[in-house]
């Protein structure tokens, strides 16, 4: 393993082959220490022709076990919110800023408790996200939560300041449009879950309107 300051997935990222090649290569990524405790790499899922890319934080416990992103309770809630907002979940590409599950345990064999990745780990994993963006070339990125926002837009990102708005930024050398919103897991933790859910749907409706305008221009 490289010194901590040199953590990066860059040497593991193939230069050609599309999403299948990226997914195969990511399975062997050793770009930072998170691979040591995680069960497997959880790469993005969806079509290379997807119009919208949804970027979350990292896999959770169920994602780590199944090897697919957003298959746990937060993923099910996200699918429902997308459909209600007018975005077909089956037409989206879903991924995370970090591809390995970071967790802690209170005791051995106890439930694994999610732990947010730090900026160094997000930076180490960023070549995978850059490669996904280069292949999919989405018309719009939906940023799910603060960690994804920091990974894409920098450490000063605050989801509460820009959620539900359309941002235009250069991301990994490409001009991108982004709609930030909260991570669906925060809805599950909210005291007013219904209010938080409706806020997520409202933000996703902004994304749906952007995609609808693009389609009308075609």
Features:
single chain, alpha/beta, 218 residues, five-stranded mixed β-sheet, 8 helices
Name the beta content range. 5-15%
Order of helices and strands: HEHHEEEHEHHEEHH
CATH-defined superfamily:
Uracil-DNA glycosylase-like domain
Radius of gyration: 17 Å
What is the CATH-assigned architecture?
3-Layer(aba) Sandwich
Biggest sheet: strands side by side, in what order? 2-1-5-7-6
General form? globular
Helix content: 40-55%
The name of the CATH topology is Uracil-DNA Glycosylase, subunit E
**Low-confidence runs:** none
List the SSEs and their pairings.
Elements: H1 18-26, E1 52-56, H2 61-66, H3 73-85, E2 92-96, E3 103-104, E4 113-114, H4 119-136, E5 140-144, H5 146-153, H6 159-162, E6 167-171, E7 174-181, H7 184-189, H8 193-217
Parallel strand pairs: 1-2, 1-5, 5-7
Antiparallel strand pairs: 3-4, 6-7
Describe the structure concisely for a colleague.
It is built from eight helices and seven strands, in the order αβααβββαβααββαα. With 218 residues, the chain is an alpha/beta fold. It has a single domain, classed as Uracil-DNA Glycosylase, subunit E.
Q: How would you describe this protein?
A:
With about 220 residues, the protein is of the alpha/beta class. It has one domain: Uracil-DNA glycosylase-like domain (Uracil-DNA Glycosylase, subunit E). Helix content is about 40%, strand content about 15%. The protein contains eight helices and seven strands, in the order αβααβββαβααββαα. The protein has helices at about 20-25, 60-65, 75-85, 120-135, 145-155, 160, 185-190, 195-215, and strands at about 50-55, 90-95, 105, 115, 140-145, 165-170, 175-180. The strands form two sheets. A five-stranded mixed β-sheet has the order 2-1-5-7-6. Helix 1 packs antiparallel against helix 4 (about 120-135), helix 3 (about 75-85) packs across helix 8 and helix 4 (about 120-135) packs across helix 5 (about 145-155). The longest helix is centred in the C-terminal third of the chain and has 25 residues, at about 195-215. The termini are far apart. About 40% of the residues are buried. The model has no long low-confidence stretch (mean pLDDT about 95).
């Amino acid at each position: 393993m490289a010194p901590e300051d040199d953590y990066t997935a860059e040497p593991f990222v193939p230069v050609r082959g599309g999403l299948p090649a990226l997914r195969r290569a990511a399975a062997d990524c050793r770009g930072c220490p998170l691979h040591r405790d995680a069960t497997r790499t959880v790469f993005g899922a969806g079509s290379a022709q997807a119009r919208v890319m949804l970027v979350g934080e990292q896999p959770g416990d169920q994602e780590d076990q199944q090897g697919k992103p957003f298959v746990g309770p937060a993923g099910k809630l996200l699918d429902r919110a997308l459909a209600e907002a007018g975005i077909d979940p089956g037409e989206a590409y879903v991924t995370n800023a970090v591809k390995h599950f970071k967790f802690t345990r209170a005791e051995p064999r106890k439930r694994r408790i999610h732990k947010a990745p730090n900026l160094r780990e997000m930076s180490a994993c960023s070549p995978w996200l850059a490669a996904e963006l280069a292949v999919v070339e989405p018309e719009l990125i939906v940023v799910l939560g603060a960690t994804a926002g920091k990974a894409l837009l920098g450490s000063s990102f605050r989801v509460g300041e820009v959620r539900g708005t359309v941002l235009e930024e250069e991301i990994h050398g490409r001009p991108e449009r982004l709609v930030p919103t909260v991570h669906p897991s925060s809805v599950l933790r909210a005291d007013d879950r219904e209010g938080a859910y409706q806020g997520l749907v409202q933000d996703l409706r902004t994304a749906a309107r952007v995609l609808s305008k693009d389609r009308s221009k075609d």
